[in-house]
Amino acid sequence: MSRSIRNVLSGLLASAFVAGALPAFAQGSLLNVSYDVARDFYKDYNPLFQKYWKDKSGESIELKQSHAGSSKQVRAVADGLEADVVTMNQASDVDFLVEKGLVVKDYAKKFPTNASPYTSTMVFIVRKGNPKGLQDWSDLVKPGVQVILPHPKNTGNGRYSYLAAWGYALKQPGGSDKTAQEFVGKLLKNAPLFASGGRDATTTFMQRRIGDVLVSFESEAELIAKEFGKGEFDVVYPSLSILTEFPVAIVEKVVDKKGTRKQAQAYLEYLWSKEGQENAAQNYLRPRDAELLKKYATQFPAIKTFTVDDVFGGWARAFPVHFKDGGTFDQIYQSK
Amino acid sequence: MSATIVRKAAAEPRWLRLTLTAVGLGFLFFFLALPLVAVFSEAFAGGWGAYREALSHPEALSAIGLTVFIAVVVLPFNVAFGVAAAWAIAKFDFRGKSLLITLIDLPFAVSPVVVGLVFLLIFGAQGVFGPWLSDHDIKIVFALPGMIIVTLFITFPFVARELIPLMQAQGKDEEEAAVSLGASGWQMFFRVTLPNIKWGLLYGVILANARAMGEFGAVSVVSGHIRGETNTLPLHVEIVYNEYNAIGAFAAASVLALLALVTLVAKTVVEWKMRQETEMLDTAMPPEKTE
């Protein structure tokens, strides 16, 4: 008991210190601003990097984390949250910081593999035993199938789900933007509601037992298993899905001011090291390292994917076409 | 005869009385008792050990510490401001008095999220003072000062709102008597005014404290969500819940619920004390005094 009181007190002291922004701690400390569910990954990654950095430079480094919805997070960074690095789940969020002059325009080329150290993909989570026999996107548009997904216009998962279905329809024989829009229209018609975020979609599907299929990240399926139990659902891999990238970037203005460029660079680079990649695999995110992908093959079944760059010409183009006011989503939704 | 008619008209039929009572109790049960039970049963879903572990996690402890710290900083300001404002409004007449009363109520009327955004617009990097603050390396938003400022704003009205009617009812006779007997300003305040308002003041402080600790919207906007640093208990609940850690979220929520219960009990005790005191005052008062 007395120990927990002491912990509370030290927490108080620590927060008081930071509030005073004492420059003594500014050296050797990085703030990583990240999306909602990235915590598990970075909780494991940070100690790995701290050890690596200590061995390499002899410097102990403090790593601070901030997690919330990704769009809210980049807004906060633009408004002055002093992030040394941002680790996001969608390029459009980093693009926002480019617009604000906080991140360099060609950030995707500053690190290997499109500045995305790991990937995931959109999969189907169905009720135990897959009673409706849902195998592919084409099954999701059939009448009587209820599809749960987060709101495509204002959530990351929702946008990826939307683009995945669109890309699938486009790649079918005779596929065009017109057929794709029709296909996605049918899919959205099967959605009884749009959840407000990934977590909300999961609660709707698992706890409120609404819907036949939940479209979600492959990595999310593991988190769901952790809370609701593995035997509660099945995961179905469609014939084709979207490769979701998780871009990372250095916030130029902040590292220059704090003098932490060297550390920030190393922190992000280390994500591509063997240790960093293995950590991704252990957190159910697909590593870029081909050997590791093979090693964890049972966990990551082979699946044909396309990227936003391949099919949509990048987020900078996909976003206005599909999700801005008057974009394809609005067109579909208003005619619904 | 007329008396029986009156009584009959006032008495509702038995079935209606029973229905209304049942509706009232049912409402209480569904909207107060059930959620409370749900919070605690979810929090203890993994047993006592998991509950303790969730609350003794460093991030949870720092969230508790930060929440308490903000309340401790904010409350003295609330007391000082509330007493001063209530004093000015209840004991004096001046131009702009009704404007001042409206201003005091402003935080009740404005949505907390808007409050947070307003301070972001003032102190944020793209805000009015942003560049200057950044040049001088002063952090307001996404750090403790910003969180204290918004909490202060949100909780400002409670003490004043509680004291104004009380002080108005008490009038200024006793203070005038004290001054005419040679008391200095502070003597009058500490010997006459403060003893008269102490329960009302405490009541206001309890309400302000509950609000300060439970505030989510405004604090969420200016917090930056840095774990172990700018995460308060309500923010901690949300983030942990979003990470599929139901036990952690509800354990933290149970601390907030406990706080609410303690607040309720303290509030009831203070209310009871207040009533006792006014009753004593009434009986002690000679009848001629009621002009």
Outline the structure in words.
- Chain A is an alpha/beta fold and 336 residues long.
- In chain A, helix 2 (39-57) links the parallel strand 1 and strand 2 (62-67).
- In chain A, helix 6 (156-170) packs across helix 7.
- The N and C termini of chain A lie far apart (59 Å).
- Chain A is 48% helix and 16% strand.
- Chain A folds into 2 domains: 23-117 and 246-295, Periplasmic binding protein-like II (D-Maltodextrin-Binding Protein, domain 2), CATH 3.40.190.10; 120-243 and 303-335, D-Maltodextrin-Binding Protein, domain 2.
- Chain A is globular and about 60 Å long.
- Chain A has helices at 2-19, 39-57, 70-78, 91-99, 137-140, 156-170, 177-189, 198-207, 218-228, 252-258, 261-269, 274-282, 290-295, 308-312, 315-322, 328-335; strands at 29-34, 62-67, 85-87, 118-127, 147-150, 194-195, 213-217, 233-236, 240-245, 248-250, 286-287, 304-306.
- In chain A, the strands form 2 sheets. In chain A, strands 4, 5, 6, 7, 8, 9, 11 and 12 form an 8-stranded mixed sheet that branches. Chain A has a 4-stranded mixed sheet with strand order 2-1-3-10.
- With 291 residues, chain B is mainly alpha-helical.
- Chain B folds into 2 domains: 13-43; 47-289, MetI-like (MetI-like fold), CATH 1.10.3720.
- Helix content of chain B is 80%, strand content 0%.
- Chain B is built from 14 helices and no strands.
- Chain B has helices spanning 2-10, 14-43, 47-56, 58-91, 97-109, 112-123, 130-135, 144-155, 157-170, 173-180, 185-214, 217-223, 233-242, 246-284.
- Chain B is globular and about 65 Å long.
- The model of chain B has no long low-confidence stretch (mean pLDDT 87).
- The A-B interface holds A 4, 7-12, 14-16, 18-19, 21, 23, 31, 36-37, 39-40, 64-68, 73, 76, 78-82, 197, 199, 202, 223-224, 226-227, 257 and B 56, 58, 61-66, 68-69, 120, 123-127, 130, 134, 137-139, 141-145, 224-230, 239, 241-246.
